[in-house]
């Protein structure tokens, strides 16, 4: 049995072109994935800043609501209501007097106009 040497020069050139094209494809796909990562990372950072802004607004509104509730409680307090009644010159009732009930029965009649 005799072996004949096969020229590998042509196949070596084809392998080199294949490896080069494979390297180019790998590098391009890496660059595409890197670009996608950077774009999504930028979007994530922007959303994070929006969330922080909304959290600050929420905290400000909660503080405002708490202040308004305190103000409402103060306005509904008895000393404030008495002060408003005096400003409006309303009569303050300190002593309540009741009519005495009469033991006898009475009937009311309508008055006729002449």
Walk me through the topology.
Elements: H1 9-75, H2 78-87
What key attributes describe this structure?
114 residues, mainly alpha, 2 helices, 0% strand, transmembrane helix, transmembrane, membrane
Can you walk me through this structure?
- Keywords: Membrane, Transmembrane, Transmembrane helix.
- This protein is mostly helical and 114 residues long.
- The protein has a domain at 12-87.
- It contains two helices and no strands.
- The chain has helices at 9-75, 78-87.
- The protein is rod-shaped.
**Can you give the helix content as a percent range?**
55-70%
| Average pLDDT rating | 82
Task: Please tally the β strands and state the result.
Answer: 0
Percentage of residues in strands: under 5%
CA-atom Rg in angstroms: 47 Å
Main beta-sheet strand count, sense and barrel state: none
What series of H and E elements makes up the topology? HH
What is the number of helical segments per DSSP (H or I, 4+ residues)?
2
Structural class: mainly alpha
Low-confidence stretches: none
Shape, principal axes of CA atoms: rod-shaped
In short:
Helices cover 68% and strands 0% of the residues. With 114 residues, the protein is mainly α.
């Amino acid at each position: 049995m005799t072996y004949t040497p096969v020229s590998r020069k042509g196949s070596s050139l084809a392998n080199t072109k294949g490896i080069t094209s494979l390297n180019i494809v790998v590098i391009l796909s890496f660059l595409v994935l890197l670009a996608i990562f950077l774009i999504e990372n930028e979007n994530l950072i922007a959303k994070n800043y929006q969330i922080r802004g909304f959290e600050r607004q929420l905290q400000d509104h909660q503080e405002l609501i708490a202040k308004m509730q305190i103000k409402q409680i103060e306005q509904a307090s008895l000393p404030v209501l008495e002060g408003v009644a005096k400003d409006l010159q309303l009569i303050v009732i300190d002593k309540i007097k009741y009519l005495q009930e009469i033991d006898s029965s009475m009937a009311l009649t309508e008055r006729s106009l002449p």
